[in-house]
């Protein structure tokens, strides 16, 4: 660990912004990340190892994960927004430095983001790994909600963050998170993906990822698809589930849209149709469902299997502000003005 002090604009700092679904990494001061890498890795035992406990091998990044291997499981290193598997994170960091940044870790200080509810034990483990394994010269860990507020020119704000596994409302005052006011909901991107999957299952539409499709014929809209399966080793259930999720997320990004006002069926029916073709060749136009599925983030009351205690984004913010008001007096009014 260096005794020098880092400051100014030309420090060459590397930013690690880690979430449940992906790691975004790049250089401080640039407009966008250099790379976005999935935090789910392909894990398999090396059969060439002669020891009683086979050595684990990892497939990292989008292309490597899509390679179908016998007995390769897809495993996430994250749990509840925090790093859960440190060996996998170490492999991911090595890959990031060598293959995506082409940089030496000891030459660049780093800024690492963390969720507001990260624990001291995990924070100390992260510092130990980065200093002792990667020899970084300097490191700073900051709450992602604080950085989001600063990015919008505010030191006091109510930050609503909707990620893969949850949506959170985090109050920030003068650059510090008010932990008593943090409110989380399990509704996030994965929940929307699950809603899309249920919608297609009800329509009896087969969800087959592109990497398993060998060939397909052109068919008319809503006709039964004609396709052949690509030969290869049988996939594991976790790998197949991950690939189907990628397909559903492609549909989400191309077709779904958040309404400007509470969901109205007449407005949704007047929405222009969006065409989408599946890897098997099946294709159709989608209209009102484009607004109906994302509406569950704001009003989950009409979704099957969702308990009444699960909060939408509006009640989430209200509950957080009320918690701040109880413990911090009039700070709540400042937060509402800076949502």
Automatic annotation (TrEMBL):
<dbReference type="InterPro" id="IPR004000">
    <property type="entry name" value="Actin"/>
</dbReference>
<dbReference type="Pfam" id="PF00022">
    <property type="entry name" value="Actin"/>
</dbReference>
<comment type="similarity">
    <text>Belongs to the actin family.</text>
</comment>
<protein>
    <submittedName>
        <fullName>Actin-like protein 6B isoform X2</fullName>
    </submittedName>
</protein>
<dbReference type="InterPro" id="IPR043129">
    <property type="entry name" value="ATPase_NBD"/>
</dbReference>
């Amino acid at each position: 660990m260096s005794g020098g002090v880092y400051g100014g604009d030309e420090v060459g700092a590397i930013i690690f912004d880690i979430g449940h679904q992906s790691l975004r990494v790049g250089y401080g001061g640039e407009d966008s990340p250099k790379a976005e890498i999935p935090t789910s890795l392909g894990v398999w035992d090396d059969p060439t190892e002669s020891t009683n406990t086979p050595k684990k091998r990892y497939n990292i990044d989008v292309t490597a994960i899509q390679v179908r291997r016998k007995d390769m499981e897809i495993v996430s290193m994250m749990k509840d927004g925090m790093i859960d598997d440190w060996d996998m994170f170490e492999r991911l960091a090595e890959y990031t430095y060598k293959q995506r940044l082409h940089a030496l870790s000891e030459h660049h200080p780093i800024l690492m983001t963390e969720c507001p509810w990260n624990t001291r034990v995990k924070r100390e483990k992260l510092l130990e790994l980065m200093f002792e394994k990667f020899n970084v010269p300097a490191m700073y860990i900051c709450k992602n909600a604080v950085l989001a507020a600063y990015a919008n020119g505010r030191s006091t704000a109510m930050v609503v963050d909707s990620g893969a596994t949850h949506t959170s409302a985090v109050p920030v005052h003068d650059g510090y998170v008010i932990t008593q006011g943090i409110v989380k909901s399990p509704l996030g991107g994965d929940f929307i993906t699950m809603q899309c999957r249920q919608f297609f299952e009800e329509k009896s539409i087969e969800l087959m990822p592109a990497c398993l499709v060998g060939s397909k014929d052109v068919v008319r809209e809503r006709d039964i698809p004609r396709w052949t399966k690509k030969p290869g080793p049988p996939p594991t259930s976790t790998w197949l589930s991950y690939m189907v999720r990628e397909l559903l997320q492609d549909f989400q990004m191309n077709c779904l849209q958040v309404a400007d006002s509470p969901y109205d069926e007449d407005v949704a029916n007047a929405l222009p149709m969006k065409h989408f073709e599946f890897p098997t060749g099946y294709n159709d136009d989608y209209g009102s469902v484009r607004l109906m599925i994302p509406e569950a983030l704001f009003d989950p009351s009409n979704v099957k299997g969702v308990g009444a205690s699960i909060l939408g984004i509006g009640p989430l913010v209200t509950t957080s502000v009320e918690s701040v008001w109880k413990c911090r007096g009039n700070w709540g009014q400042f937060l509402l003005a800076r949502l």
